[in-house]
Every structure is written in C-alpha cells, then in structure tokens.
Protein 1
Amino acid sequence: MNREWDVFHPFEKRYNLKQRVDMTIWSRVSGKVIQGHGVASGQANDPRFPEGTLKMQWPFFTSLGLQLDAYFPGTINVSIHPHRYIVKQAKHTFRQVQWSDDAPPEDFSFFDCRIVLKTGQRMDGLVYYPHPETKPEHFQVPGTLEVLTEFIDGLSYGLTVELELNSTQVLIVANQDETPLV
C-alpha cells in the first residue's frame, strides 16, 4: 500500500498548485553488503540459470504487473545482523510462479525500501523476497535482505549502508526480542 496523498494548503489551492507529500513511515537500519550465492545475477555460473534467476523471473513479474526494468538484474545482499526482519504486508506478492522448468513454483514478495550510501545518496528499491517455504535452494541467512535497485558504481562487499524500509510492510527488530526499531 502506497501511503501517498495529495495535500493542499489554502494558498496552493487558490493558485492551483499541488504538492505531493510522502506519508510513508520509514524504519532505518544499518547493514553490511555481503556476498550472496550469485544465482540471481548469473555470477554463480549455474547452467540451469545462465543469465541469472532474476532475468528469467522478470517476464513473469512483468506479466503480473510489476515493472523491474529500472533495476539492475542482481540483488545487493545486506546483512542487518544482529537485527532481523518480520514480514508484515508486502507491496506485491505473487504465488506459485512457475518461472523455470528446473525449479518448482515459488512465492515471491516485494517491499519498498531505500538504500542510503555513505555519500548521503538515497536510492529507491525493492526488497526481493522469495518465500523460504517455497524456495528449493540457495537460502539466505536470517537477517539478510536482498535489495533490487539501479546499478551502484563502487559498491563492494563489506561496505556499510543504511536501509530504509516501509514500516507498514516490514518490521525490523532486535534478534533477542520483538521490540521494533524506530
């Protein structure tokens, strides 16, 4: 759910000026870029997925109404350890997507996020979440989020980034308890 409304001030209404106000409540958490399996991007050289699983999945997501063309066809794996996340309400969920003859159907969800670099640059993206209960292999460590965004020049393993997550979609909690980070 996108919580963006058109808000008018009397002056703006009188002169027909419109201002968009983003009412999303973002939770922010630090994370470290870590190496993934390389299957999503095709770097793993898996003969079943020569160009990567994402390039194979994207046409299915597009046919279901999710356009990902602006994003790099690979994920940025961000460890938020010692924190973890709890899925609340995805922006998009697709069930039983049969995207490959070499894999059973899977469920996928996507959540709004922004990645904030040390330079202060903020980039919109999506958390890519293949549901673990339908995923046949290549599982992520709890506390690792897979982020889709545009290509980021100079990004490397070990780099600390900040993630901003839509708190109506994903809740970030300390590993020991259910206390949300604000």
Protein 2
Amino acid sequence: MKDLIQLIKMDIKSYDGKLNINNIGFRQFLYRYFKTPGFKVTTVMRICKFLETRKLLKPLYLLMRFKYRRLQVKYGIQIGHHLNVDGGFSINHYGGIVIGEGAKIGKNFNIRQNVSIGHSKYKTPTIGDNVIVGAGAIIIGGITIGNNVTIGAGSVVTKSFPDNAVIAGNPAKIIGENTENNKAF
C-alpha cells in the first residue's frame, strides 16, 4: 500500500514540479484527481494493479476494473492496467492515447495527446527515465529509449536511441542533445 501511495504522490508531483513530495496530502490528491483526466485514469490504473493481487479484495478489484474501463472510453486513454510504469507518469493532454501493457516505462514519463506505444512482432518498447513524448508520436517494437530523451511531435520511432537525445521525424532521428542547460526535468 505504501508503494502505491508513493507512486501516486510522484504522479502528482509530475504535474506540479514545485510541490515537495513529502508535503503532498489528500487535498492535493483530490484537486489533481478532479482537475486532470490523465491523472484520474493513471490513478485508477495503479489501484487496479494493486487490487488484482489481493484475493480478499476481488469484488473491489472488479468494481475498479469497471470504473477504469469507463474512464478509458470517456477520455480516450487506453492503457493496459498491467503496464509497468514508475512514478511521475503524467498525461498533459488526454485523448487518443494507446499504451500497450507490455511496455516498460521509467519514472517521470510525460506524454501528450494521440501518442501510441505498442508492440511489433510481440516485442514492446522499453523507455527510460525522464522522457517527454510530443503529440502524435508513435513508438513501436522491441526498442529501447534511453534516459532524458525528448521525442518530438509526430515522430515515428522504430529503432533504439541513447540517453540525452532529442529525436524527431518520420522515421525518427537524432536532431539534438539534452544537456544540463536544456533538460526538461
């Protein structure tokens, strides 16, 4: 339960970087939950994943899965509840988001609308920490995206990229480097 709360606190902090993670309380949770559809979906996803392994809470799990499915349809965010994503996950603009549950995503992952992350030939992407994905980007296949990577809007990523890269295009290629002076996180 403590891990679940910590992940949700990290998600709240990703929407407002000025907050101290130790000072995030129920008030900040409620504010973010009712204000931000992406946070609402990811919170319910995390709760479903937590409840799934608790046999005594099976009826609550089924109820939360139903709620999760309704939120997915309402906001156009399709994320498998088995998705392996660390804390700090933020969806800045909801709608048209599809993330296959086989993907592995690090902490401080920030995406915009119309992003697709999925498998190709049953292989899914692994995405590092502190990654920003622009609107309309597509990331597919058994590739690895390094840490501190920025992916431009409309990019089609089908090959692996190293740490600190700024990538864009169709097909995606390195167009710059995230240095200490211009890192987004």
Protein 3
Amino acid sequence: MTEPGVTREESGERPAGRAHLVGLGSPHGGDRLGWLAVEALREALAGRDDINIDCLAQPVDLFLPRVASSERVLLIDAMRGRGPPGTLEAFAPGELPETAALACLSSLSSHGLDLAGTLALAETLGLFPGGIRILGIEMPAEIPKEADPEMPEPCLNEATRRRLHAAVLGWLDGDAHRDIGPRWPAGPGVP
C-alpha cells in the first residue's frame, strides 16, 4: 500500500490484483491481429504470475468466469481507419470511436453484444474494478484472397511487437512513463 500523498508510480508499487490480457478477434484475416498480439506476448510474459492471457472470439466472452474474476483487463483488437498499419491506440471504454474502427465494433452482431455494449454492461455489473483498457492495432487494408491468393495473412512485425510489449508492461506495472498512452504511431517505413 502506498503512503498518503505518494502515487503508486512514485512508490514503485505494482497495481493490485490479477490482470487479464485478452486478444479479441478470430484466426482469419486482419481480425486475427488481437490473437497474434497476445500469442506474441505470451512467451515474453511467461515468468509473470500476475496475469492470465486468453484469445476470445467475441466480446461477450469477457463474462466467462476465468476472465470476469480478474481485477483489471486489457483487450487487444484489430482496428481500421485510424492510422498506418501497425499503429497502436489505447482507449478507455467510454473513448471507443463512434465509427466501426475496431474490428469487433458494430451496433448489431451475430455474436450478441458489441464491444461497447459489453464493456458498458461489465462496468454496470462492477466487473474489473481495477480498470478496463482497450488497445487497438491498425490492420492493413484487406485484399480478398480471391483477388490475390498469394497475399500473406496479416502479421505483427518486430517494431510493432516491441511497442506492444512496452505498452503492456507499462499497463501491468502501472508505469505512467511506459503506459499505453493514447497513441503509438507505427512510424515511417513501419508496416
């Protein structure tokens, strides 16, 4: 516990409670970036005992007991139309774009609740009292496989992996200097 008047960052204390890192998406197409991200991070975070890591296909899976019992959650999902491919952008639940920029956002979905509705319900139910954060990864423009069968599936390059790792460590450790920030651009020449 921190001393009065001393922030957690100043004391070097990590945020309390179990964290859950969730990749949202599917195993196909650009929407797989959330899954690729958490799989890339799984090995890097293997020595940590304060985090669970999952890939989920739909936002309502956040209500599964293994996820809902966590103190706080970081969701990683593909997004489109907010920057060059590889750009990372962080959102609080109330900051999600009005447009369908995040891959799983839509007002109606065959999966049930959309991301914004799921997060609003989670907050109303008092889940994840330590906080909810969403990290979007800008995906490349989709080209139908029929148009170019040799087109490789989307992937995370090394620069994006490093930015993701730094952002997630900042979130896990409560380090404001390595926090996700609002936006981490891909940078010139970084696909």
Protein 4
Amino acid sequence: MSLRNKDTNMEANDKKRNLLLEIYQEFGSRFCDMEIVYGDGNPDSGIVFIGEAPGKDEVKLKKPFVGSAGKILRDFLERAGFTRQDIYITNAVKYRLFRINEKTGNKINRPAKKEDLENCRPYLIRELLVLSPKIIATLGNVPLQTLMGTEAKIGEVHGKKTDIKIEGKEFLLYPLYHPASLIYNRSLEDVYRQDLSGLENLIKQLKAGEGIG
C-alpha cells in the first residue's frame, strides 16, 4: 500500500468515526436516562455483527458482547482468524432493557418491545450506512426484525444469506441465532455451529475476492 493510499484510508476511517460519534451523541441526548452501550471495533472491517441489547456486563464495561454470550462469539472469531478489533459489533437497541424485580428491587433484563425497535431503528440504519459493511450478521430476533420487520423469524431464516436494501443501498444479511440461545437451549448447538461455518466460509470468500479485513 502506498503512503498516499494509507493516508486516504486513515482519513476515511477518521470520517467514519466522526460520523458514528455524531450518531451516538444524538442517541445519548435522546435517551440520556438510559444505560447505553455503543458500537465497538473496526469501522472499516466490512463485517458488522448486530446483537439485541446490552446487558448488565456490557453496561458495566461499556462494550457490547462481553458476557457469556460474548465468549461464544469470541470463540467463533478466533476460529475464523479474527479478533474483536477486526470486526465491528453493535446492538439494535443500544440501551439496556430492564425492569425492576418487585421482590428484590434489582434490575432484571426484559424482552424488547415494538417501541424499542421503532425508537432505535433510525440510529441503527444511520450507523450501517456509515459503516457500509459487506456482511451484516444479525444475532437473534431483535436485530433481524429491526431490519426486516416483525414478520421475520430467526427460526425460519437462520444461516441463509439474503440481500436487503436499506435506503436504496444493498447489503448482504446473514442471520444467526443469538449466542445466548445456546446457553438456554443446548439442542441448538449443532445448528448454530453449522450456521457459523456458513458465515465463516462466506467471510473467507469475500475476504479473498474483495479484500475484507
């Protein structure tokens, strides 16, 4: 890579980071009373993983996917020859979804509601348009439905690549079960590994043909 090309790439990377910062600042201003975690990683990687929402561990460390589900994702990345800094990880809903346990008074996670998806979708769309990834890997129903509508079901489309349009721009979408689903349902392990293998092959094909990473 020539020095001029290197400088150009650095300028493009800085521009992306500045645009992402603007989006995150707007999000933070609107949801200032929430526990927020923003995206993390390499904005130029060409590969974006989208989770559902941050949990207790993510809020504590201010990074997406650092809990037990994050370990499953990290193991896959290492097997595929990647680290977290080789990709970009974000969430469809960037604030923690919780309710108060009436008996203990502690915060416990709750499922996403339709209004959560509607509130956060515009920011996710802007984020993806800035990142312009070659592959979008959604993890679970929440990011899948945020992008494709509530009629989309992960059980029907997991492991199947599809082309989607976002504001007129085409993206390759590869839906996966959420890593946490393996913790609660071990019967999904073989299916999940097959889907990950498909994603790994897809990444390798695009990396070889289009220079991802």
